[in-house]
């Protein structure tokens, strides 16, 4: 242990945008989930049109900040986590329902190793199934692994090592590249006084960026498989963008990648994705003609993002808007 005082001082930040019912369940679960810590909870409401802010205000011990406009997820979460001296910052989605002891356990695990900058739990869907939440940092090589590696090779362990969706069981603790930000438990010291999340775009890729920045400063990120949190997922994103959510996430990811690695690198990544989507569409068409439906992403979803892949490959990524009428969160 690092000699930090016990119990650990924790600040939980939640960003809400029209998630009243889910937020109410999340807040009700927090006292038991944070057991053993000295915790404060701050909800930032991004100009909801439902009663999210009022529901949060009715919760004992919860401080509510109301934004006049929807400033986006990263900016609002930075508001929620700013302004107090604590050991641990927890960025929590309003569509999560942490189990008793879960967040307190994660906070303590973070301080069991002085080089850990962030820990994340296993996420579970409402139906009890695993929710894939851990990835390697994006790259042309990673995209090629996803797009072109034969499934038999992926099932023999390659998919597990690369944390590929459908092949990684998320059943063992491990050091990781990055985890989606439904639950980020962050060592405050690791931020070096910076806000946790990059406000470059309105929403998406800020979780990827935080883990990247921690890695660049030598902080490890760890997945704790035995701590599980229920996560509905896409609660706000579905309201704002519907089927366009994947395109929004991908555009933000391309913009982030270009900001870190440059235009040539993002063009290579997008080119591999273009080739992969083209190959997959051809295989789906062939399977359909042969009368044998293929598993995997449907043709409509692949076709919807193809223009974005191709445009990025040819012209680089477009900067993402910092202001939007869309969602405050919902991965």
Tell me what you see in this structure:
This protein folds into 2 domains: about 10-135 and about 170-235, Spore Coat Polysaccharide Biosynthesis Protein SpsA, Chain A (Alpha-Beta Complex); about 240-315. Strands 1, 2, 3, 4, 5, 6, 7, 9, 11 and 12 form a 10-stranded mixed β-sheet that branches. It has helices at about 20-35, 50-55, 75-80, 100-110, 140-150, 150-160, 205-215, 235-240, 245-260, 265-290, 300-315; strands at about 10-15, 40-45, 60-65, 90, 95-100, 115-125, 130, 135, 175, 180, 185, 220-230. The chain is α/β, with parallel strands linked by helices.
Features:
about 325 residues, 12 strands, alpha/beta, 2 domains, single chain, about 40% helix, Spore Coat Polysaccharide Biosynthesis Protein SpsA, Chain A, two-stranded antiparallel sheet
Q: Helix and strand layout, with pairings?
A:
Layout: E1 9-16, H1 20-33, E2 38-46, H2 52-57, E3 62-67, H3 73-81, E4 88-92, E5 96-98, H4 102-110, E6 116-124, E7 130-131, E8 134-135, H5 140-148, H6 151-161, E9 174-176, E10 178-179, E11 183-187, H7 206-216, E12 220-231, H8 237-241, H9 245-261, H10 263-290, H11 299-315
Helix pairs in contact: 5-10, 9-10, 9-11, 10-11
């Amino acid at each position: 242990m690092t000699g930090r005082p016990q119990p650990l001082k924790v600040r939980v930040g939640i960003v809400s945008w029209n998630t009243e019912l889910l937020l109410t369940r999340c807040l009700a679960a927090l006292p038991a989930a944070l057991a053993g810590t000295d915790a404060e909870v701050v909800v930032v409401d991004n100009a909801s049109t439902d009663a999210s802010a009022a529901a949060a205000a009715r919760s004992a011990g919860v401080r509510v900040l109301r934004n006049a406009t929807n400033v986006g997820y990263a900016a609002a979460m930075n508001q929620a986590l700013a302004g107090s001296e604590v050991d641990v910052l927890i960025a929590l989605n309003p569509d999560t329902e942490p189990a008793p002891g879960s967040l307190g356990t994660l906070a303590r695990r973070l301080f069991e190793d002085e080089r850990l900058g962030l820990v994340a739990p296993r996420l579970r869907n409402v139906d009890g199934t695993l929710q894939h939440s851990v990835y390697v940092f994006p790259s042309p090589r990673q995209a090629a692994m996803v797009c072109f590696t034969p499934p038999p090779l992926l099932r023999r362990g390659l998919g597990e090592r690369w944390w590929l969706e459908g092949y990684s069981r998320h059943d063992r603790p491990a050091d990781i590249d990055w985890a989606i930000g439904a639950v980020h438990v962050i060592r405050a010291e690791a931020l070096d006084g910076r806000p946790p999340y990059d406000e470059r775009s309105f929403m998406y890729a800020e979780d990827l960026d935080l883990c990247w920045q921690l890695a660049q400063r030598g902080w490890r990120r760890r997945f704790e498989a035995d701590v599980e949190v229920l996560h509905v997922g896409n609660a706000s994103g579905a309201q704002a963008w519907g089927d366009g959510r994947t395109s929004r996430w991908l555009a933000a990811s391309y913009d982030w990648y270009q900001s870190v690695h440059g235009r040539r690198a993002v063009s290579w990544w997008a080119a591999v994705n273009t080739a992969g989507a083209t190959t997959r569409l051809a295989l789906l068409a062939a399977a359909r003609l042969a009368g044998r439906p293929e598993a995997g992403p449907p043709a409509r979803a692949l076709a919807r993002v193809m223009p974005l892949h191709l445009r990025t490959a040819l012209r680089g990524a477009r900067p993402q808007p910092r202001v939007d009428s869309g969602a405050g969160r919902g991965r």
